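Pilot study result, target chain (286 residues):
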Amino acid sequence: MNSDSDSDSDSGAFKGKKALLKRGNKSKKVVSDDKKTIVKNKQRVMILSSRGIVHRYRHLMNDIHLLLPHSKKDSKLDSKTNLGLINELAADNQCNNCLFFEVRKHKDLFLWMARTPNGPSVKFLVQSVHTMDELRMTGNHLKGSRPILSFDQSFDNPDTPHLQLLKEMFSQTFGTPRTSRKIKPFVDHVLLFSVVGDVVYFRNYQIVEKIIEKQKEPETSLVEVGPRFTLSIIRIFSGSFMGSTLYENPDDERKEAKLKYIRRLAQKEGKSDHKLPEDEFKDVFV
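Predicted structure:
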């Protein structure tokens, strides 16, 4: 009986040593894995528009969707007042970034770029829109390839923290992650973001390499592909489509006033065409 109990205790101790050794090996593996950790960029962008979008702006939205293989298009949003519904749509589509094209009066295009669901978010006024079909440039890059993001030096200026925030948001939205399913293993185009004042200029270039004789390295050049447009900063919010104002463009009110003034002039000119000519003799018998 004693021998059996001794053998059971020895086997239990042996099993306990094995378990401890396994735990020790696992902990060592974890330490070694921590040294070789790779941060994965898991970004997905949802693209949608409001009702009443014009065909020109719809083509622009399709061009941006083609440039972002990690993006997903959604149906048009009916509500123009409750933009908080976009956060729920992004959660259903498993997206953590959003590009919302808001059209007003079938003329003015506003672009919302938001980090869902906690923010921040930016509202832009889109101007000088030229789609790929309009430009018809000679450049052509592979569909689904990853881009190189190029930013102006003014984005790193410490005196303009709102531009530093925009740089981070642009890199998260337009930077295609390696883990995306639809990407091609090529890097053959450059997305350029340059700033003049509070206006961001967007350009897309193809990287062209030409092999020249008697030279070891090929000659590289850039050819514009399109689309091209400008983004005028209106306001930056702390939340996603809501929250406190982090930055407000001081020239925004002037731009809106100019747009209203131009519309009033156009309406007056349209009404004046239908008016009867003035009577020269209306004050004769007064």
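One observation from the pilot: The two ends are 138 Å apart (CA to CA). A full batch analysis is planned for the follow-on phase.
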